[in-house]
TrEMBL record:
Domain of life: Bacteria
UniProt-recorded name of the protein: LysR family transcriptional regulator
Keywords: Transcription, Transcription regulation
Signal peptide: none
Species annotation: Micromonospora parastrephiae
Classification via InterPro entries: LysR_HTH_N, WH-like_DNA-bd_sf, WH_DNA-bd_sf
Length: 309
């Protein structure tokens, strides 16, 4: 027996003094109202209504039970309201602050279509990790080594003039005997993480670059401005290079890539976002649309870019 539904019928009939009028008020057939009240009486082992006359009157037991039945209905309505509000409450997601607004809007829109009401919070890599640790967000897209990543974004160098070859060799940036020009590699904050910064620094040292030629900038805007106004090169994704109107090319040797995964306080939240919004998140991060390996699940948006040669 649905006790709440039975109490609704009981309260409606008592308020109208008639099973017919009470059923209409409750939005159910009269026969259903009668069965529900009868089931409630059987459950409690006492009559709620005196049916000996044309008018339906409460019995003393019914009068005693009516206030509690009303409170039960109010509590059930409050519970349903709170459940709906909780279901529609924003799902706070920390995202890279390098994601363009239009791509973030596409992720949020896809979430709406899939009944996930996202509230995105753009932040740098350290701040996203902190927000996840302190549970200020339900989940965050955090940097991880590419080998452990759900999404991987290949990185290369971008400059204001075209490169003479499709693949860039860092040794070409060494200052020569006849020139003192020191073209720098600019690392934006999103890539100031060990699995990107350290391999690049080691590679630069191995080919003879000076320490001052690999530098971390305060912001992506500062880095892009330097690349647009000087011979310096910006370490970035192909999408970022296109957005700034820069010429881009991959590095020779071991490829560099951003790695991303979801960090969430509840494992189910991370699994749900990967399964439902994985492809949209991949597009937002700038994961190439090709290069998916055969052992990856196409529903997750997990893609891998093979090293350029």
């Amino acid at each position: 027996m649905d006790v709440v539904a039975a109490c609704r019928a009981f309260v409606a009939v008592s308020g109208h003094g008639s099973f017919t009028a009470g059923a209409v008020a409750a939005g159910i057939p009269q026969s259903v109202a009668s069965r529900r009240v009868a089931a409630l009486e059987e459950h409690f082992g006492a009559q709620l209504f005196d049916r000996s006359s044309r008018a339906v009157r409460l019995t003393p037991f019914g009068r005693d039970m009516l206030p509690t039945a009303r409170r039960l209905i109010d509590l059930a309505d409050a519970l349903a309201h709170d459940a709906e509000r909780a279901r529609r409450s924003p799902f706070r997601l920390a995202v890279p602050d390098t994601c363009a607004a239009r791509h973030l809007a596409a992720v949020v829109a896809e979430g709406h279509r899939r009944q996930i009401h996202l509230e995105v919070l753009p932040a740098g890599p350290e701040e996203r990790a902190r927000l996840c640790r302190t549970l200020e967000v339900r989940a965050g897209i955090v940097p991880v080594p590419p080998g452990d990543a759900a999404w991987r974004v290949p990185l290369g160098l971008a400059g204001r003039v075209p490169f003479p070859a499709p693949t860039l060799f860092l040794e070409t940036l060494r200052p020569g005997r006849t020139t003192r020009t020191r073209r720098r590699i600019l690392i934006q904050p999103e890539d100031d993480v060990p699995h990107v910064r350290d391999p690049l620094t080691r590679l630069g040292q191995s080919v003879g670059l000076q320490p001052a030629q690999v530098v971390t900038t305060r912001s992506l805007i500062d880095a892009a401005a330097e690349a647009l106004s000087s011979p310096d090169l910006l370490l970035c994704s192909l999408r970022q290079a296109e957005e700034f109107g820069l010429h881009w090319g991959p590095l020779a040797g071991e490829p560099l890539a951003r790695g991303y995964d979801l960090s969430a306080g509840a494992r189910d939240d991370a699994h749900r976002l990967r399964a439902i919004l994985g492809p949209a998140i991949a597009r937002c991060l700038g994961v190439p649309s090709n290069g998916r390996t055969s052992d990856e699940d196409p529903t997750t948006g997990t893609e891998q870019q093979e090293g350029a040669s």
